Amino acid sequence: MAKKNVVVIGYGGMGGWHTRAICGSKLENDGYQPPKGMEDGSDCVSLKGVYDIKEERQELARERGLYAYPSFEAVLADPEVDILTLAVPNDVHKDLAIRAMAAGKNVISEKPVTLSSADLQEMIDASEKYGKLFTVHQNRRWDEDFLAMKEVYESGKLGYVFNIESRVHGSRGIPGDWRQRKAHGGGMMLDWGVHLIDQMLQMIPEKVKSVYARMDHITNDEVDDGFKMDVIFESGLVYRIEVGTTNFINLPRWYMQGAIGTAELQSFDTTSGEMVIYKNDDEGEVKPVITAAGLTKTMAPRKPSSLDHLPLPQIHADVHDFYRNVCKAIDGEEPQLITHPQMMRVMKLMEAAFQSDAEGRPVSFE
């Protein structure tokens, strides 16, 4: 397969990540490490250049040996450019994507793809009108912690799974840039919620009955700096998504409860957790736990011989499969992996979460 030429629009944090993923270790002194397995650069795309509206970013790119286009119009006018990757503030995704597709370019938008389902529909309509690929970089579908817990869920080893908790916690607040501003699409729902919702919908193949969300405004009144979101699926499974930026002690990254077992993962590291599965009734007489104010048999620990402690699956993923799929989809060799209906479902769930918070009640869905 001939490599496709990519231009990265926006040479900030994620723009730098994309350039390093494409170039690998050939890109010196840029402050970014290539993704695991990508040290030699991409096998499916080549970096044609970058463009940023800030001249200091343009100059930085030149210092690192990259070609910096003089304008966005110059990018669109270059017939050798196949794909634009948009790594810019969320509020400008729609305009740039539609202009790019109208100019005959395929488009990858960083997440969230845009700010509303109405805007997203305009982008999808443009993709269909101009016959160009349009997708979003939901890179955390390749997170190994997610893939490990997805495998646990699908294995049935925990029995009927009735509760899943997926969370990310930090203590640094919202990054001190445009992510603090509502007009630019800031806040944690659009920053991290979009990832965790997409992971949830990839894991659970059911319709969503309702959504109940509560946004936090601990350090920022303009946008949410955290939230808790309970999603109820048609089977009754409760899936909690939680993002916090004022957590100085983190709760587990994952917690999954089934009728005969529990799985926990403390962090993104898949070796930081385990499954504990009910094995037999070798309990005998339960020895009560003595507390300061009385005793309890109900909360007494099980006898160790009645339980199996198992490691979590160890998954090895390659995040650059995203770009490989984009290239093959452009050539008609395989379906687009992150589809327009999937993008719309994530967007509408985020909108339902904001509605739930504003109205202080659960919101029906699907």
From TrEMBL:
Residues 5-136 form the Gfo/Idh/MocA-like oxidoreductase N-terminal domain. GO terms for molecular function: nucleotide binding. It holds the Pfam family GFO_IDH_MocA. SUPFAM superfamilies: Glyceraldehyde-3-phosphate dehydrogenase-like, C-terminal domain, NAD(P)-binding Rossmann-fold domains. It comes from the Bacteria. Residues 146-262 form the GFO/IDH/MocA-like oxidoreductase domain. This is Gfo/Idh/MocA family oxidoreductase. The lineage of its organism: Bacteria, Bacillati, Bacillota, Clostridia, Eubacteriales.
